[in-house]
Design goal:
The chain is of the alpha/beta class and 515 residues long. The protein has 21 helices and 18 strands. The longest helix has 16 residues. Helices cover 37% and strands 19% of the residues. It starts with a helix and ends in a 15-residue tail after the last helix. The chain has 2 domains: 198 residues, 2-enoyl-CoA Hydratase, Chain A, domain 1; 195 residues, 2-enoyl-CoA Hydratase, Chain A, domain 1 (Alpha-Beta Complex), CATH 3.90.226.10. The strands form 4 sheets. It has a 7-stranded mixed sheet, sandwiched between helices. Strands 12, 13, 14, 15, 16, 17 and 18 form a 7-stranded mixed sheet that branches. The chain has a two-stranded antiparallel sheet with strand order 2-3.
Length: 515
């Protein structure tokens, strides 16, 4: 007596599930420049590593004799696999089956994918395409009723932000619940000219009297620049490559530590270019990314959020093989001052570093918060205070390299002052409660007004004050711990990374992650 007939039935159902929405719908997916969910999983994961869960869940039709006539799979594919030989959960929408709408979904599959990631303590990658199991008006007619909405698995989605690395890829037109699943992550991507994201799509928005195209409403030119998602890429293949790279810096969960990568670079490398990279003229800009590239392990910098909050550069890198979180002020935007968007970017980034036990390297250049009517309208101080709270709550090992400006409330928040931090200053460092430029005119207003030659007096005062602003004067009172030769930056940072490695403690953090 053998169970082979049942195994044959199982294989038949599995084969039907792999046909997804059928050849016509698969062709439509390809004609739209998109891969199918199974092709995506195949390209994302290590070859042959995918272990599907719930493959034969769906809707079946039967003949009069009870034999299987036809089968349509659910529009969500999930399971376990490996990325760079490390375990992950992957869950993806199948847009070929009813456009990902709720009437073709089995919501328990989304629940189990999120539960699996959190309870087994491994990263999750969401491949979002469509509404992500969200509503469809056709569902009302098919069921003969409406229903009180519930977001499947949402309690687990939120919990996972504080437990496991979560990556979400927007790979088509993403709306409603799908959009929420995309942005509720540690790292999110959209594909240029293929992906769009919105709370509600163009047909619904048109009811407000505003006809728009999908790109006009929610293309990457909007969402990669307003911080809704972290980055835009040119293709799905690039999205998968960046996902693999992002996860290489992450631990499996908060109960683990980020693994050390290969040691491929000299920790004592000294770069001559660093000595002259920052101009003597304080109004001249320089390239912060060059500083990061010259001091991190060569080729290891993985930038996150390049197109929004642009007065600060954020990303992941390695120092002597150890993963670190890197921030650096970018003087090309607002002179590196913190805008409301920048503050939001800092908050999320510091929270991610704190959640996953990544030491922080902060290349400091911050003249304070952006000022003016627009800045006040954007509630910059509110968002800035939130960013400051994230920094002051951070317990991760922290090293600040003061490259240039440190002024005002925002500048003061370049580290958590409640604990020991490594801190070094370059000779180009320039700090105070407010910059001399502009401050002199205010402080000496009456003297300048009474002078017969105010221009000459201003010049004399400025020359005097420039001597006072010397970083060596601050070092005399231990107001800055060490002034260093910029060429020594990498060796000191590698020392920091090696000293920080045993200081990290696995486990969840009290503050959690602010999405």
């Amino acid at each position: 007596m053998s169970w082979q007939p049942e195994i044959d039935e199982l294989r038949k159902r599995e084969a039907l599930a792999k046909k997804m929405g059928g050849p016509e719908k698969v062709k439509r997916q390809h004609d739209g420049g998109k891969l199918t969910v199974r092709e995506r999983i195949g390209k994302l994961l290590d070859p042959g590593s995918f272990r599907e869960v719930g493959a034969i869940a769906g809707k079946a039709e039967y003949n009069e004799d009870g034999s299987l006539k036809d089968f349509s799979p659910s529009n969500f594919v999930c399971g376990r696999g490996r990325i760079n030989d490390r375990p992950v959960v992957v869950g993806g929408d199948d847009f070929t089956v009813r456009g990902g709408a709720a009437d073709a979904s089995i919501w328990e599959k989304q629940v189990i994918s999120e539960q699996m990631a959190g309870d087994v303590r491994i990263p999750i990658v969401r491949l979002v395409d469509g509404t992500g199991g969200g509503g469809s008006v056709k569902t009302y007619e098919m069921t003969g009723r409406t229903y009180v909405p519930r977001n499947p698995a949402w309690e687990h989605v939120v919990r996972n932000l504080s437990l496991v690395p979560t990556v979400a890829l927007g790979l088509g037109s993403v709306a409603g619940l799908g959009a929420a699943r995309l942005v509720t992550s540690h790292y999110s991507l959209m594909v240029k000219n293929v992906s769009q994201m919105f709370a509600a799509g163009p047909p619904v928005v048109a009811r407000l009297g505003t006809p728009v195209t999908k790109e006009e409403l929610g293309g990457t030119q909007i969402h990669a620049r307003n911080g809704s998602v972290d980055d835009e890429v040119e293709s799905e293949e690039e999205a998968f490559a960046r996902t693999r790279q992002f996860l290489s810096y992450m631990p499996n969960s908060v109960y683990d530590l980020p693994p050390r990568g290969p040691v491929t670079d000299d920790p004592n490398r000294r770069e001559e270019k660093l000595l002259s990279l920052v101009p003597r003229e304080r109004r001249k800009v320089y390239k912060m990314r060059d500083i990061i590239g010259l001091t991190m392990d060569q080729g290891s910098f993985f930038e996150i959020g390049k197109l929004y909050g642009r007065s600060i550069v954020t990303g992941l890198a390695r120092l002597d093989g150890w993963p670190v979180a890197v921030m650096g002020g970018d003087p090309f935007f607002y002179g590196a001052a913190w805008s409301a968007e920048t503050a939001h970017k800092v908050t999320r980034f510091v929270d991610m570093a704190e959640t996953f036990h990544l030491p922080v390297v902060h290349f400091v250049d911050c003249p304070g918060f952006v000022i003016g009517v627009e800045a006040e309208t954007a509630a910059t101080i509110r968002h800035g205070a939130r960013a400051m709270a994230a920094v002051y709550q951070a317990t991760a090992p922290w090293c600040s390299i003061i490259v240039r400006k440190v002024f005002g409330v925002a500048g003061a928040a370049h580290q958590n002052w409640n604990k020991f931090n490594f801190r070094y200053a370059w000779p180009s460092g320039d700090w105070g409660s407010l910059p001399l430029e502009g401050g002199i005119e205010a402080a000496y207003k009456s003297d300048l007004a009474a002078s017969d030659n105010p221009e000459k007096l201003l010049e004399d005062i400025t020359e005097r004050m420039n001597k006072v602003r010397s970083p060596f004067r601050t070092a005399e009172t231990f107001g800055v711990e060490e002034i260093i030769d910029p060429r020594d930056t990498r060796p000191l940072l590698c020392e920091f990374a090696n000293l920080a490695a045993p200081l990290r403690t696995p486990g969840p953090r009290a503050t959690g992650f602010r999405p």
